[in-house]
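Ticket #4471: structure output looks truncated?

Reporter: J.K.
Steps to reproduce: submitted the chain below (231 residues) through the standard prediction queue, then opened the result file.
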Amino acid sequence: MNKITRVNRKNILFSGIIILFSTFLLVIASVLIINSYVKLSTESKIYTLEEAIALDVDCILVLGAGVWEGGRPSYMLEDRLLMGIELYKSGASERLLMSGDNGRIDYDEVNVMKQFAINHGIDSEHIFMDHAGFSTYESMYRARDIFEAKRIIIVTQEYHLYRAIYIAEKLGLEAYGVASNRRSYMGQEVRDFREILARTKDFLKVVIKPKPTYLGESIPVSGNGNLTNDK
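Returned output as attached by the reporter:
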């Protein structure tokens, strides 16, 4: 191998490393820019409980989270439910929409959520269950197309609200959020990191607007929530 060939190979290798590194930096920069944009474009839509009471909305959309063995909501889900119930009882809306994962027989977020609200004195007819809210995107899509909501208050923890509101608005909903942070949550640092990636993913998803896993017949949130009962 002559000297010129060795030099050319080194130059090609060096150029390849520069291209890969530049691409990596570009991806990181894009993710950070998207993350900042999603937060900045929605932070004004996050209201306090007192501010949200004055809003005229079709429903309070409570987003699901984990449930524990024995049908108990996790701490994060319990706090979301308590805030949703407080909004309901304060007059923010006469309808609660519980959206979560009920994709398996042995895992059911939404019935746990509805029963929790009933145990806190809310009429079953006023509580709707979205059994196919498998993701934040699907919850918003189905709130619009299945439950025919147009104006909503979203209840979840603050770190999650920015993305939820952003998705809702890009799907044509008028959306507001109330944060349900009532305590510190174990593993929040990991969730915060994952949320940065999730915001980027859903920023692109709302451009494409794929259909959710399931659609079906409409069940207007203005009607009777017992129509969503499966037990």
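Triage note (M.O.): checked the attachment and the full token line is present. The beta strands are 46-47, 59-63, 67-68, 72-73, 96-99, 127-130, 151-156, 174-179.
Status: closed, working as intended.
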